[in-house]
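Collaborator request log, item 7. Partner lab (contact: R.S.) asked for a structural prediction of TCF25 factor to inform their binding assays.
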Amino acid sequence: EEEEEEAPAAGERADTRLSQRDTEGDRDRDREGAVAEETDEGQREGQEEQLDQTPPSGNKPRKKKKKRKTKKTSAGDALEDKELEDIDRLLERIQAPSGLSAQSQGGLSPDSRPLLYVEHRNLNPENEWKRYFGAHAVLGDQRPRQRQRHVRSTWLTAPKNTWPRYSKTGITMRLLDTQAGVQHFTFEHHREYQQVQYKFLDTVESIDPNNIVLLLQMNPYHVDSLLQLSDVCRMQEDQEMARDLIERALYSLECAFHPVFSLTSGTCRLDYRRPENRAFFLALFKHLMFLEKRGCPRTALEFCKLILSLDPENDPLCVLLLIDFLALRAREYTFLTRLFQEWESHRNLSQLPNFAFSVPLAYFSLSQQEERPELERGQARERAARLIQLALIMFPSVLMPLLDHCSVQPDARVASHPFFGLNAQVSQSPALNQLTSLYVGRTHGLWKDPAVVAWLEPHVHEVLRMVEAQHPLVQEAEHKRKIRYQSAPRNIYRHIILSEMKEAMAALPTMTSQPVMGFDPLPPLDSIVSYTRPERTSRPSNESTLSLFFRSLLPNFNLQGDIWHDGDDEAGAGQDLNQGVNRLMAAMRDMLANIQFQEPPRDDNPEGDGDWD
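Returned to partner:
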């Protein structure tokens, strides 16, 4: 009996050593026996090990085996946890001399990336919603989406089952050249796509959205038709369909990407002067506007960085007027300050009102983060104070409209001072007025925080003190305002049109006599045209005023008819005249038949309490 009581204890020690060897991946039986013989009870351990390997002959040994197995598992887990703790201590000793930990390395990694580096996971709005509301609230009980065979996996947008089946549209991408590590690409239209493009231009001239719908039924992934019809749906308050059409356009363009084209590297370029490339810029811009309205500023910021990386030198859509607002809304203050520090020397970002005011607001927000060291918070507070004073001196016309939008009543000294008064707004150029109106209309919601208003107030009084003391910075800023901002470049007007900010649209000058189309607003004057639309048979333009009036009412009306004769036969000319008169009379009858007159109210009710029908 003593032997039996001692044997399980010895067996447990042997099993403990066996479990340790199993965790290390060594299953050599001879080595286990050699280690077991190091103790005084090695002989009994070997016997117990043989008993474990032989099948049990009765119930009693079987119970002992189960008991030993349970003890073996618990002892093995304890040793495994101890080994993991030892590994963690070893890693800490290795990382201690270098002063880097896993958390600090993760914090430094974004700064080492390029400024316009784009992350794939930040292009998906569902990931942002999951961070805000949790995965269960976003996905619910739905099962993972099954990929269809005919649907490609894309990064910009997720294809939907309700979309038509995708087939090659005739759009491809070609690599033009590579210079200093920067790759220049361009989209190309094949002949069949060019024919569809000609039909699309005809439908646009018809001023009938139904014609675009018919064209999309035959060519469901024609990009310009999707962009134009999206604007029509947005004007009709059908936001869901408008967004769906933009996503379908992005999917069509992404399926045509070159194998080397990368969205994340920030080194791939597209020239906006080529008409084939403009659809990609416009689709990305309209998509990020929808994302911002849906409450996804972080995803919209990533798309804004993508647009800027495609042509950072020219910035054809002038997304620099928008990127600061998205960075503040997404609370990416470090990115905004880094962009200002790296680009101020060669892009003069401080001369734009949006950067002049948004960057000090970002520094102030950084100074309010309690998890940062006190030294960093103090430095951010000093930079914010210095930059907001320079912004108020350079653009004094921003303060009063900004306070008015925030429903903040300034004190008597600020309200009565001419430096911030109405004279500051009237005396500035129209181009500067558009920039300031665009910034105030877009970002005034970020300045409503009481903490921000309390921080702004002493700096406004400090600027007034500098103005009364005739500080040289005040005179220098006034001189810059008179020389600069004489006229805005074309990309700023293009940005204002796409943004549809009513504050800035009111002061928009007439840029061209041609109508502004949503698929190509204000095309560049130095466009690189690869193919031209074939000339159609010209029609005489000697239409009467009455004919032009009916055409404004009925776009399909044509007094001259569809067939024109080149001959000088008087009989043919008279016949054409009769046909034109008949068409005019028919149009007048149709118009009069559709006019409905409202009956005046009856005098049966003398009190007049009833409403008109």
